[in-house]
Write the structure tokens for this entry.
Amino acid sequence: MKRLRGFIIKEFYHIFRDYRTMVILFGLPVVQVLLFGFVLTNEVKDANIAVLDKSKDAETMNIINKLTSSGYFMLNAVLESEDEVEGVFQEGKVKQVVIFEENFAKTLKNEGRARIQLLADASDPNTAQTLVNYTTAVVNTYLAEKAKSEGKQLLIDVVPKMLYNPAMEASYMFVPGVIAIVLMLISSMITSISIAREKELGTMEVLLVSPLRAGQIIIGKVVPYVFLSFLIAATILLVGRFVFGVPINGPLGLLLAESLLFILLALSLGILVSTVSKTQQTAMLISLFALLLPTILLSGLIFPIENMPLLLQYISHAIPAKYFVIILKNIMIKGTGLESVWFETIVLGGITLFFILLSVLNFKKRLE
Amino acid sequence: MSEREIVIRVRNLVKKFGNFTANDNLCFDVYKGEVFGFLGANGAGKTTAIRILCGLMAPTSGEISVAGFDIYRETEKIKRHIGYMSQKFSLYEDLTVYENIRFYGGIYGLRRKEIAKRADALLVRLGFSEVRNSLIKSLPLGWKQKLAFSIAILHRPDIVFLDEPTGGVDPITRRQFWDMIYESASEGLTVFVTTHYMDEAEYCDRVSIMADGRIEALDTPLNLIKYYNASTMDEVFVKIARPVQQL
Amino acid sequence: MRTIGFFIQKEFLQIFRNRSMLPMIFMVPIIQLLVLTYAVTYEMKGIRIHISDADFSSTSGQLTGKFTGSPFFVVTSTGTTHEEAEQALHLGKADMALNIPEGFERGIMRSESPQVELLYNAVNANVAGLSSAYTSSLIADFQGNMIADLMGGMQGSIIPVADITYSYWYNQEMDYKLFMAPGILVMLVTSIGLFLTGMNIVREKEMGTIEQINVTPVKKYQFIVGKLSPFLIIGLGELAFGMLIARLMFGVPFMGSIWLIFLFAALYMLVLLGMGLIISTLTNTQQQAMLLSWFFLVIFIMMSGLFTPVESMPDWAQWIDRFNPLTYFIRVIRLVMLKGSGWDEVKDQFYIIGAYGVVMISVAVMRYRKVG
């Protein structure tokens, strides 16, 4: 036990003395949280639009005003004919052109229906679709309110409710995801690289001929990183809570326990990677391409899994982070307890056991 | 001896790293065609001095000329006239023997035809013709060392600097390595070699012994043995280096 | 020139001899291009909706019919109460829920504006916002129909509606892959370029061969040109290969001039290689070089507009983005490939990236020292 403690302390020294790595270890999560929080957003705001108003009456002026004051759109150009559309699109700034038909107000009044044509630059389909939808919503709201103010009855009264996230903060989505990514990164990538480094430097041999047992070597390597990962997870939770206001509605103890489970899983993956790679470079590449990228892409963090091709959806079932993200979202935001995440917890536990078993077997094989 | 042409001239060379003085006021000359041994315990400042002479590091102060060129102003000219073999192994492990020769020949500005000619001669002389297309990493260390030396003098420099060239090599290979050094020296090449094998020191024409950043002795091995009243260079070295190390 | 030739020859030999490097340079990016392009999609097909209808009337049927008939919604469960609707969201079985109370039809007939409840799971604010926008147009549509059908006689209370039609230019099928493939290609070329150069020189440092080169009369510029041109060539080759795959696999159009793209790519690679070189002067081990490149790469990629539009980012982020080379390349490749923009439309980006390249390479050359 004493030997093991000495060994663990040595590992701590290794990690904390390499200040460049430390800066990256703690800097990366913070930068990522901030990046995801502030930068990665699909929210449409101040999108440049152009207007081709063939009517130029009070009604079209009102609609244009509504559009620009909605915060979604900014008027970039006023066009005189359809021939100019291609030009503004090719410059790349204008994302949508709004065309009002001639005699818009008159037609609207007399026939109850008037035409607006939207041309969207769908080279970015997502933005195009969002812009078209938002424009439609702004125009509809405007007409409905106008009718109301003129004493006309609304047919139905729609009451929308945004559950769990009434302010519609994007951070509710990404904070759990970033925790998953960063824990995966630190726990598996850094562990595997650190073990591969000992192999490269030949110090692993020294450890192997020492009286330490294989299990002890693995524990010694892993304990500092469990500690580090926990610290980092806590940091992100705090940043999420106090910078972005993401709540922790469920039981905190359960949240931490689930985090620990995921850290163990990631560490066992890291050890597994290190048993199959001889150099730091290989360990790095395997972690990066086989662990990190799939975690980012297929965990449902940024891109909704439901919309992916079936094959990728199947693959996503094998991505541990996916289950962890579900657990985090349920506990933190929906405030549910173990009753809603028991299945995911069992899956994570099973995967962890499997990887630990596999890496111990692998490690032993190398000893023989 | 003094009529011989001086190829390395060092006066008051000082190199400091912060408060630490690695080279303290070194003064010496090296003559054309001699094998000059540069001895000292680990950390005595040998490698620093050799790196300064090769232009890999700038000195703090001192007047130094190598191959007739000033070390401050004409570093790049010096580089045409010297060869260097470092203690860290310096051939590309993932290239073949011939590819290494071609690359280093090429960056010294040799033409492809000339490289091919010299490479053939070199491989025949070393008896390496069969391994011409083998990767460096597949060769034993002694072979690599010999090859590294041959490549360091492929462009026919005036002076070659060898920084502990025989580290980790078996005695027989070391002997062969020194034969190569003598052969080259007899053709007019000046050899500046650092080592901590004292038997190798006895092969040198003259040796200087460094301790704690200073040159404590400089003469032919025979004179040094006589002067220090010793029977081998090993004893000389112990007498010079030990008092300092005990401090 | 001859010296540089020897350098380039040596670099290529080393790259092609390294068995773990080759797949990294050629296989991994291609697989990524294929997988990523499919994975990275915001395409909204199938917002999962729960419908609670306590009215069971033909009018409520018409409203729910709007949702069942829309390709954007998939009805995953039905019920009659508000509680059921909320439960469906709580268990994660639906993204949104529609709750029509009893007396809905009667309310409409009597012009009492009956309430209809819409619940959204707003954990993903993005999806919730878009769902709500879709829903709003469905409801507007429903109102329009109702007015025409039921209330033909009640002229006075007609609510005017805008008849909004739309067309999607450059990508009528709204195929997200067309948009993503060129951007992902840029990302891959960037990561390869940055990683390879950053690590390459550090590797020579670690092995000690850089010393050997520093004692030779090789000039700084020869060394740097010799080191960088192989990666420039590999980068451009990779781009060409990737574009071919994007064309064959995803049918990405080449509306504009390919030469314009390659010219831009060449300038862009200069920026990248300069950065790689600077990273290699800042670090001593391959591990540090990798982590540092990775760090910058993540930031560059996230902020580049590859995944989310630059215009949506806060002002400070957009300001930082002026120094993000990826932003320029992604913009240009999309403009030229998808929309057929020509020199006039993209010349500003060319000037910027050209100047950027000159600055990066100069800094790199200044920082690289033969003498320690």
About this structure: Residues 282 and 343 of chain A are 34 Å apart (CA to CA). Chains A and B do not touch (no CB pair under 8 Å). The mean pLDDT of chain A is 81.
